[in-house]
Amino acid sequence: MRMRNARAVHMVSGCVLIASLSGCGSSSSPLEAKLPGIGVSVQLTAVDGKPLPVVIASTASDQTLVTGGKAVLGEAIATGSYTLSLRHTTGMMSETSNVAGTTNLVANGSTATATIDLGAALGKHVYTFGL
Question: How deeply is 36 buried, as exposed, middle or buried, from its count of CB atoms within 10 A (0-12, 13-18, 19+)?
Fold first, then answer.
C-alpha cells in the first residue's frame, strides 16, 4: 500500500511539474514578455528599426527627428491612437511638436508596429511601440 501511494505522489508531482513548465497549453514561453491589453499606453521604442531619436527627414538646412511617442492599444490591438514627438531644427532654431492620430497596429510578441505616413515632407515610416 505504501509503495502505491509513493508511486502515485511521484506521478502526480511529475505531471504538475510538466504542466507548469509547458505553460499549461499556452502558445508562448512563460518568460516571454507579452504586449499589454486594450487601453494600455506603450512607448515608442524605434523608427524604421532604429532606436530613438531618429532623423526622418533632412536637407542641407534643416532636419526633423522623432524624439519619443506612445500608442494606446485599441480593441483587439488592431487599432490604436498614437502621439509622436518631433523636433524640427533649422540652423540654430529648434521647434518641438506632437503629431497624433489613429492607426492600425500589428502585434508581434511584446511589440506592436504601425506604418504611419506623416505627409510628403516627412514620409512614411514604420514605428515600433512596446515594453
Answer: middle
Domain ranges in the chain are 1-32, 33-130
Torsions phi, psi of 111, nearest 5?
-130, 165
Q: What is the distance of C-alpha 18 from the center of its chain?
A: 31
Residue 128 is placed in which grid cell?
515600433
- Which stretch of DSSP H or E encloses residue 83? strand 79-90
Angle (CA) 84-70-126 rounded to 5° is 65
Reduced to 3 states, what is the DSSP secondary structure of residue 16? helix
From the list 120, 112, 58, 66, the residue with the least C-alpha distance to 90 is 58
Q: What b/e sequence results for 57-71 when a residue is b if at least 16 CB atoms lie within 10 Å of its CB, and e otherwise? A: beeeeeebbbebbbb
**How much of the chain is in helix, strand and coil states, percent to nearest 5?**
20, 50, 30
Q: What is the pLDDT of residues 70-119, one digit of tens each?
A: 998 876 657 889 999 999 999 899 999 999 999 999 888 788 899 999 99
- Whole-prediction pTM value? 0.71
Entry field: residues in the chain: 131
Find where cell 522623432 sits: 66
